[in-house]
Amino acid sequence: MSLSSLGNSEPKGLTDNVRAKIESSLAEFVDLVPSTSIILEDGARRDPDMQYMYKGAKYPSLIVEVAYSQSKKDGGKDLAKLADQYVTESNGSIRTVIGITLDYQGTKRATLSIWHPKYGSDEQGKYLAADETVMSQEFRTANGTRVTQQTIRLPLKHFPLPHLLPPGDCEQEILIPYEKLADYLEEAEAEEQRTKKGAKMVMPVGMRKRKRYQTPPDTLGMADERRFEREKLVAERLADKEDVEWKRHTLA
Q1: Torsion-angle region of residue 129: left (phi > 0), alpha (psi -120 to 50) or beta?
Q2: Strands (E), 48-204
Q3: Banded model confidence at residue 86, pLDDT cuts 50, 70, 90
Q4: Which 3 state secondary structure label does DSSP give 78?
Q5: Residue 118 above 90 pLDDT?
Q6: Please, which residues have CB within 8 angstroms of residue 38's CB and are 6 or more apart in sequence?
Q7: How far is residue 72 CA from its own chain's centroid?
Q8: Of 92, 121, 129, 154, which is most buried by a Cβ count within 10 Å?
Q9: How far apart are CA 205 and CA 182, in angstroms?
Q10: For the CA atoms of the chain, what is the radius of gyration?
């Protein structure tokens, strides 16, 4: 098995690079298989920025989503709503959702939220909900200062489902310091800038881009079908008429 994931994000370059850094942190502790698009219990299809699935499970154990702070207002990601859907519509199979929010206004501020399944009961009976155990905590301030003395703690036992837990001690935790997460983000931002300034082919002066010729569709339109039906009917009637005249001529 190999550790891998697929990304599809608003800040795509950042996601790919941060993902690689997080993978290197996880690879020391867990051995996971890649996962693809998620079809949840309500039929919704989701493509998380990062996801890690334990062998034998239908849903990933850990999901990471990255968004800009303004994206929800612009019709983009609502991380809290996504986390709630991931947890409840996987029947609690998705054990951890990490949301990383980058400041939309151009500052260096970046925050972290974490959700886990929560089981409880109220006046209507038992319930499953997404519990936000870490709420929008800064791991990098607006001026770019890294936050220290804070750590993401991911219990290893949250990766496989309870009935898939391997024998032995599963009380270990994966620890990713906030300071290290800020380092990952800075390295990703630097890589994104290098990519934007990277080499590319330049079109010679006077050269145009010729698009592929669009062939007409093979299917007939409704008007064409009606026309062909009329022509077919006329042809059949003419054939019948000629057949009758031929028979009269023969009998004569």
Answers
A1: beta
A2: 50-52, 62-68, 96-102, 110-122, 125-140, 151-155, 173-177
A3: very high
A4: coil
A5: yes
A6: 45, 46, 47, 48, 51, 59, 60, 86, 90
A7: 16
A8: 154
A9: 44
A10: 30
Report how far residue 161's alpha carbon sits from residue 131's, in angstroms, rounded to the nearest whole number.
18
Query: How far from each other are the two terminal CA atoms of the chain, in whole angstroms?
Result: 90
Tokens standing for residue 81: 């709503």
Given 3-state DSSP classes, what are the helix, strand and coil percentages for the chain, each rounded to the nearest 5? 30, 25, 45
Strands in 125-140's sheet, in edge-to-edge order, are 50-52, 62-68, 96-102, 110-122, 125-140
- The residue among 64, 124, 68, 67 whose CA lies nearest residue 94 is 64
pLDDT in tens, 129-151: 999 999 999 999 999 999 998 89
Residue 18, Cβ neighbours under 10 Å: how many?
26
What digits encode the pLDDT tens for the residues 29-76?
555 555 578 999 999 999 888 888 777 788 888 898 888 887 555 556
Is 188:21 a contact under the CB 8 Å cutoff? yes
User: Of residues 29 and 103, which shows the higher confidence score?
Assistant: 103
Biggest CA pair distance of the chain: 113
The token pair that represents 246 in the structure block: 């031929």
* Inter-residue contact 68 to 104 (CB < 8 Å): yes
DSSP annotation of 250? H
Taking alpha carbons only, the member of 1, 12, 9 closest to residue 52 is 1
Structure tokens at 76: 């983009």
pLDDT at residue 185 is higher than 80: yes
Model's pTM, two decimal places? Answer: 0.68
DSSP reduced 3-state for 227: helix
Sign of the torsion angle spanned by Cα atoms 146, 48, 96, 159: negative
